[in-house]
Design brief:
By secondary structure, the protein is of the alpha/beta class. The protein has a single domain, classed as Alpha/Beta hydrolase fold, catalytic domain (Rossmann fold), CATH 3.40.50.1820. It contains 5 helices and 6 strands. The protein has a 6-stranded parallel beta sheet, sandwiched between helices. Helix 2 packs across helix 3. It holds the Pfam family Ser_hydrolase. It comes from Chryseolinea serpens. This is Alpha/beta hydrolase. GO terms for molecular function: hydrolase activity.
C-alpha cells in the first residue's frame, strides 16, 4: 500500500480474528480508536475520525470502515467535506432498521449525501444488519461503486471471514 490506511471497526470493535484486525497487524494499518465501542455517540466517533486524520496528507488517506463505521464515515464526510483518497465501506449497517441493535446515539437518519471522495461499498445479499436494497441505496446516494459479494452474511468472523483476500483487492483498487 502506498497510502495511509485507517481501520474503523463498527459496533463492538473488531476482534482478533476479524479481517480488519488481521489487516491492521499484517500491513501496519492504523486503527481509529473510539471512546465507546458498545454505546457509541455519533459526535464522538466522527470527532475521533477527524482528529486521527488531521496530521496526515488527505490525498494519501484511505478509510476502511465496517458496519456502523460506514455510517460514521458518511456523517464525517457530510460534516467536514474533506477530500481523501478513498474509502472502502464494508457491510454498511442500516441504523434505521428495526433489526439494528439498540444503544447507538445520533446515527439516524443515515446520510444520503454524496461522499466527498471515491468509495466502494461491499455488500452481502443476506446481511442481517442491512437489506441489500438498502445497501444499494446507500451506495447510489454516496456515489460509491457497489460490489455484491452474494450470500456472505455481515462479512465478519461469524460469517467465515478471516484475512479476506478479496477485500484486499478492493482496497488496492482505491490505492491507485
Amino acid at each position: 500500500m502506498t497510502s495511509s490506511v485507517f481501520i474503523i471497526p463498527g459496533l463492538g470493535n473488531s476482534g482478533e480474528g476479524h479481517w480488519q484486525t488481521l489487516w491492521e497487524k499484517q500491513f501496519n494499518f492504523t486503527r481509529i480508536q473510539q471512546r465507546d465501542w458498545e454505546t457509541p455517540r455519533r459526535a464522538d466517533w466522527i470527532d475521533a475520525i477527524d482528529k486521527a486524520l488531521a496530521p496526515h496528507d488527505p490525498a494519501n488517506v484511505i478509510l476502511v470502515g465496517h458496519s456502523l463505521a460506514c455510517a460514521a464515515i458518511a456523517f464525517w464526510s457530510d460534516q467536514y467535506k474533506r477530500k481523501i483518497k478513498g474509502a472502502l465501506l464494508v457491510a454498511p449497517s442500516d441504523t434505521e432498521a428495526d433489526t439494528y441493535p439498540p444503544g447507538t446515539s445520533g446515527f439516524t437518519p443515515v446520510p444520503l449525501a454524496p461522499l466527498s471522495f471515491p468509495s466502494i461499498v461491499v455488500a452481502s445479499t443476506n446481511d442481517y444488519y442491512v437489506r441489500f436494497e438498502r445497501a444499494q441505496q446507500f451506495a447510489k446516494a454516496w456515489g460509491s461503486k457497489l460490489v455484491d459479494i452474494g450470500d456472505a452474511g455481515h462479512i465478519n468472523v461469524a460469517a467465515g471471514f478471516g484475512a479476506w483476500e478479496q477485500g484486499l483487492g478492493f482496497l488496492k483498487e482505491l490505492d491507485r
